Amino acid sequence: MLSGRHIERELHRLNSPPILSKRPMNFPSFRKTVPLLLIALCGLLASCAPSFVTPVAQANPNPLVGAKRFEVKPVKYVDLRVDGKSEEAYKAGIGADSWADWDEDKRWIAKYFTDHVQSSAADGGVSATMGDSSAPFVITPTVSMIDTGYYRIPAWNAVSRVNYNVVITDRSGRRIDHVEAVHGIPFDAMFAPSTSGRLQKVAAMLGDAVGEYVVERTDG
């Protein structure tokens, strides 16, 4: 009997070209693509879409008001759980021949997130860049949980999901904000057959959301 991984790969082969490439996919920023009419409607309704970012702790008064520069640290994987088990147990289950693919998935999950934090913040007039060691504030993201979303029965249970914890500190290391960013995309044989592609898109969406959160906090 074929495993879920083999079924998912075969569906991917039949339905689409490979998603993962040597260069990042260009997922559009939410700030650029949401129609103006929808923005106005959301304002009237206060909240018409689920938020991907949940504050865990926020400094009050808010020292980020008026801030224009942040350093973004590379994503780190801390106590990572994959499909409900330790990463070591997950890797043992997929076999050594798939470890390189898994490492590549993790690399893109990190890159898409940080790229989109930077671009989304820039859309709001805030510089959030990697390597800016003189910026007064620091954004440090970690990943603690990934659901790969490999094909399973029933198919709607196959959801690719990533959980980021993002801490904002001042340059001395004093914690200012801590937020959790979580989102998932379900398997779709026609439009989202690839787990790698879904994880990349989730990372991009959450990077956009965190960048927007930073802009909102600097606006007060």
Automatic annotation (TrEMBL):
<protein>
    <recommendedName>
        <fullName>DUF4136 domain-containing protein</fullName>
    </recommendedName>
</protein>
